[in-house]
Amino acid sequence: MTTTRNLSRHLDLTTLQLFAAVCELGSIGKAAERELIAPSALSKRLSDLEATLGTPLLERHSRGVHPTPAGHNLLHHARSMLFSLERMQAELSEYAHGVRGQVRVHASISATVQFLPEDLGTFVQVHQGIKIDLEEHLSSEVLRAVQEGAADFGVCNTADGVGELQTRPYRQDQLVLIAPSAHPLAQQERIAFAEALAYDHVGLHSNSSIYLAMRQAATALGQTIKLRIQVTGLDAMCRMIHNGLGLGVMPLQAFTLMHSTSDLRAIALTDSWATRRIDLVARDFHTLPRSARLLVEHLTAMTPPSSSRG
Hints:
It is a single chain. It is built from 13 helices and twelve strands. The chain has helices spanning about 5-10, 15-25, 30-35, 40-55, 70-95, 110-115, 115-125, 140-150, 195, 210-220, 235-240, 250-260, 290-300; strands at about 60, 65, 100-105, 130-135, 155, 165-180, 190, 200-205, 225-230, 250, 265-270, 275-280. The protein has three domains: about 5-80, Winged helix-like DNA-binding domain superfamily/Winged helix DNA-binding domain (Arc Repressor Mutant, subunit A, Orthogonal Bundle), CATH 1.10.10.10; about 80-170 and about 275-305, D-Maltodextrin-Binding Protein, domain 2; about 175-275, D-Maltodextrin-Binding Protein, domain 2. The relative contact order is 0.13. The strands form three sheets. Strands 3, 4, 5, 6, 7, 10, 11 and 12 form an eight-stranded mixed β-sheet that branches. Strands 1-2 form a two-stranded antiparallel sheet. The model has no long low-confidence stretch (mean pLDDT about 85). It has about 300 residues and is α/β, with parallel strands linked by helices. Helices cover about 45% and strands about 25% of the residues. It starts with a helix and ends in a 9-residue tail after the last helix. A hairpin with a 2-residue loop joins strand 1 and strand 2 (about 65).
């Protein structure tokens, strides 16, 4: 049996990177071409890796390869190690160019549109030596990236839980129903989501936190959403609504900031799920690099008192 000490001697980052490439592409030949290595040499590395670990990692079939259960487990750890190595390399290279730190942040579209531009702007005015690498993802993908180490911390809706991740309060947003001014519901100031289910809707991605909340609300009422079209962004949603393709649900501040047509109305939703919390999430805030801790402290200082929680 391979001991932990022997395993650290036999495993190398190059082999792990090649293994991850094979899993990603589903083909040893394609991975070899992308990584500039002979297919035979790549196959030998994979065979040696399986021998070292004492278990098959890949299943070969006519269309290529895919990881075994053990391979999936190794892939998870390999990606985490490679992410950490890339982050280390990026941070150290930035020091060589006079930058004193780098922070990787993954954020939901709601957080990116509504709050982060101003809050990050004030941060870099004070900490000009810190570079921020911001990526926009669905809330579920933000949580996954933080868990796997692809991001130092995330900013997203946490209504569906965060598992073992830590959270700190950041902001709240209010979801509203968007309708053309000529729509039968447009003259109402406040409305329950149930009243909108009789009409066509423009929805976001099926895995977005907003769409999931809408679908759960409709299911609780024993109804379904009449989804006429789905888009990937809030600006596209406004344009679709403007062109008569249905109603939509989005954060009020995002609508206020981005909509450019005067014939759209924002109607307050009375449902409890329409008031959402947006949190900062991390595996462990106390062990973050100093540059990331500084940014977390800055963002939590931006939290309005009404959004704070014990």
